[in-house]
Specification:
alpha/beta
Length: 347
């Protein structure tokens, strides 16, 4: 059950975690929309902006906004570690009794945050999902692929995965602590959070156009996310490899019967077509099976390496300033990054 603010978290009722990578064009619109919403809550809050190794002026703009917005907290990662790793960094360091994760592009409206907080408090929920009621702003191809992705996840991970719910969600302190305790290496929060089984609710909204800049989730990135989702939460691909192997064996038996039948009937014309087909088919099945096994072996390999998923270069809440060093330096305390293996970086 969700917990209200206690002595552990002081007066910070809400933390808003925002992973950012090259978002200099979207930042002004985000601040203009987010700050009035949070100021109107009448409760203590912090905005945890996680700069995921941006190469543009994102860090510079965040430092400028901090001058007039003391609730803005900036965590800078030493390198681009990927969206889910940056989100992990924010969740690990967020201090609020409730934590909202939000993207910087304003496609998920910040104006829904008070509704999510009120729903969690009013019904004692630990998780409130932002569910997209309308994706008309997306292309037809994006809507089709997204629909297939969520149908596949619900089939593999169970009906607890809400359809069309991304990374816009509210979590209670209990849910955040449970996530931090999980040993998962490559994290996909849109599957991990439902798997926890905490009481949950939904807030529906219409997905908007990106305020500025370009998407950080192109097709290639979405394919990698889908691969991580499937291999991280289901052994179905391995079972598929077994079924493919069984199917190939049946086909080979059929070809064997065909060969003996032809020999018995005196049809000794060389069957190069059937032979070539059999070789290509069996070779393709073997390559698919080896590739599926390789995906799982790769996950085992990264788990054995046990590398941190991110390194914090600076955190303005540590009091060392924006130029503080990470755990290898001497200016700031060691980063509180959790020892998890590296996730795929943004393209």
């Amino acid at each position: 059950m969700a917990q209200e603010v206690d002595g552990t978290h002081g007066t910070t009722v809400l933390s808003v975690v925002i992973p950012m990578y090259n978002e200099e064009e979207a930042l002004p619109a985000l601040v203009n929309r987010l700050r009035p919403v949070l100021d109107g809550l009448g409760a203590g809050y912090e905005v945890v902006a996680v700069d995921d190794g941006s190469r543009d002026r994102t860090a510079e703009l965040l430092a400028a906004f901090r001058l007039g917005w003391p609730e803005l907290r900036v965590i800078g990662l030493r390198r681009n570690s990927g969206h889910q790793a940056a989100l992990t960094a924010g969740l690990d360091r967020a201090a609020g009794a409730y934590v909202v994760s939000l993207d910087a592009d304003c496609q998920d409206p910040p104006e829904k945050i008070p509704e999510m907080l009120a729903l969690a408090r009013g019904q004692g929920l630990d998780v409130v999902y932002g569910v997209r009621a309308d994706r008309s702003s997306d292309s037809a191809f994006k809507r089709w692929t997204a629909g297939g992705y969520y149908r596949l996840l619900r089939r593999l991970a169970g009906p607890s995965v809400p359809a069309h719910a991304g990374d816009f969600r509210l979590l209670s302190r209990a849910a955040v602590d449970a996530l931090k305790a999980l040993p998962d290496q490559q994290r996909v929060y849109r599957l991990l959070v439902p798997w926890l089984g905490f009481p949950s609710g939904q807030v529906r909204y219409e997905r908007e156009l990106r305020s500025a800049g370009r998407t950080k989730y192109p097709l290639g990135r979405m394919i990698l996310l889908a691969a991580d989702s499937i291999t991280g939460f289901s052994a179905a691909p391995l079972r598929l490899a077994t079924w493919l192997g069984g199917g190939a064996f049946v086909v080979c038996l059929g070809l064997l019967v065909y060969t003996f039948t032809g020999y018995a009937l005196g049809h000794t014309v060389p069957g190069w077509t059937s032979l070539l087909t059999a070789v290509v088919f069996i070779g393709a099945v073997q390559l698919v099976c080896v590739g599926l096994l390789g995906e799982y072996v790769a996950r085992i390999y990264t788990a054995v390496q046990n590398r941190p998923s991110y390194y914090v270069a600076h955190d303005t809440a540590d009091g060392a300033g924006d130029g503080a060093e990470d755990s290898t330096g001497e200016q700031s305390p060691a980063p509180r990054s959790v020892p998890r293996s590296r996730t795929r970086a943004e393209p």
